[in-house]
């Protein structure tokens, strides 16, 4: 594209290479250049590689944008991130520099994440990854799975996603129970679960599923003590945020064969190729796919283009403030 007016846009962490086709970037007009980055930009290279860009388009929390990096991007004038909130972006530092920050709508991410939660639960209970590999390798059945009917489903957090998981759990014949710091018996009942203590949730549940926002108060909320309380063979599902769980304690419990886990989120993403979780047969791993659907991504990128166009007209939309 022509670069004459100096507007250069970087679309970061386009892992699947679909951003260009899911929105009409050409509608931004001649003189606007858009570059799509499929590979993550290492933090050590970020300042040099992103310095020429006026606009950064971020996919959720894949690329942290802290005050130090912001200070090294003199050309930056607009940041658009997908979804409603992004704790990895220092909005206060951007605003102090006079840089506009906009977001997009959430799409069907909540629904899709609940669906993936159930998929991971079933994959763990029925040993599906192992049996997929058996079939691909010419072998036949080698494991004995477990049904979920009559089992207890423990929900750590009973917001929009947790309540949806509870509903599907009930449809499978499970008994949903829930705990979170401010959850009441009445709100738990409205969300389709019975309120229990934090200790009981871990000791009584056959499946524990995490549905909490990551904050200083929730970081490591599932630690050594909580994992130790889980029943032998119980399943831990995390489709929320990796740092909610003490990763070292989880790896230790999985290595000992005490529990099983279905994980979509990790302390470090992308998960390093040599990470110990990758080699554990009782861990079902997916690469943070909870919100990754065609419908959601189309909304994300269409909203991103809309936000850039509105900003260029001097009437920005969905502005995020500190």
Automatic annotation (TrEMBL):
Keywords: NAD, Oxidoreductase. The keyword NAD applies. Residues 118-290 form the D-isomer specific 2-hydroxyacid dehydrogenase NAD-binding domain. Residues 31-318 form the D-isomer specific 2-hydroxyacid dehydrogenase catalytic domain. GO terms for molecular function: NAD binding; oxidoreductase activity, acting on the CH-OH group of donors, NAD or NADP as acceptor. Belongs to the D-isomer specific 2-hydroxyacid dehydrogenase family. This is D-2-hydroxyacid dehydrogenase family protein. It comes from Methylobacterium nonmethylotrophicum.
């Amino acid at each position: 594209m022509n670069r004459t007016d100096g507007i250069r846009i970087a679309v970061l962490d386009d892992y699947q290479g679909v951003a260009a086709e899911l929105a009409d970037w050409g509608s931004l007009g001649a003189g606007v250049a858009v570059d799509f980055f499929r590979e993550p930009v290492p933090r050590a290279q970020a300042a040099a590689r992103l310095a020429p860009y006026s606009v950064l388009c971020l996919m959720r929390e894949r690329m942290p944008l802290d005050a130090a990096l912001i200070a090294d991007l003199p050309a930056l004038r607009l940041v658009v991130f997908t979804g409603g909130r992004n704790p990895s972006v220092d909005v206060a530092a951007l605003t102090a520099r006079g840089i506009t920050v906009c977001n997009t709508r959430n799409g069907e991410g909540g629904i899709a994440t609940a669906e993936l939660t159930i998929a991971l639960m079933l994959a763990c209970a029925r040993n599906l990854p192992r049996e997929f590999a058996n079939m691909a390798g010419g072998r036949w059945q080698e494991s004995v799975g477990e049904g979920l009917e009559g089992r207890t489903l423990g929900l750590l957090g009973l917001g929009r996603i947790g309540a949806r998981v509870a509903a599907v759990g009930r449809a499978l014949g499970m008994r949903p129970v829930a705990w979170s710091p401010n959850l009441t018996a009445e709100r738990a009942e409205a969300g389709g679960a019975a309120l229990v203590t934090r200790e009981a949730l871990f000791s009584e549940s056959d499946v524990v599923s995490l549905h909490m926002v990551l904050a200083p108060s929730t970081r490591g909320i599932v630690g050594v003590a909580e994992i130790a309380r889980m029943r032998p063979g119980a399943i831990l599902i995390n489709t929320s945020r990796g740092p909610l769980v003490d990763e070292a304690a989880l790896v230790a419990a999985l290595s000992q064969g005490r529990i099983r886990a279905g994980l979509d989120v990790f302390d470090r993403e992308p998960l390093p190729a040599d990470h110990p979780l990758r080699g554990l047969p009782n861990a079902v791993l997916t690469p943070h796919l909870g919100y990754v659907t065609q419908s959601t991504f189309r909304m994300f990128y269409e909203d991103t283009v809309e936000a850039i166009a509105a900003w260029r007209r001097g009437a920005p939309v969905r502005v995020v403030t500190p």
